[in-house]
Amino acid sequence: MSNSSTEPSGARRPGGTEPSGARRPGDTEPSGARRPGDTEPSGARRPGDTEPRLEVGRIDKAQGVRGEVIVRLTTNRVERLAPGSVLATSSGPLEVVSSRPHNDRWCVAFAGVRDRDAAEALRGTVLLADAIDDPTELWVHELIGARVVDQAGVDRGRVVDIVANPASDLLELDSGALVPARFIVDVAPCERVDVDVPDGLFDLG
Question: Whole-prediction pTM value?
Answer without folding.
Answer: 0.59
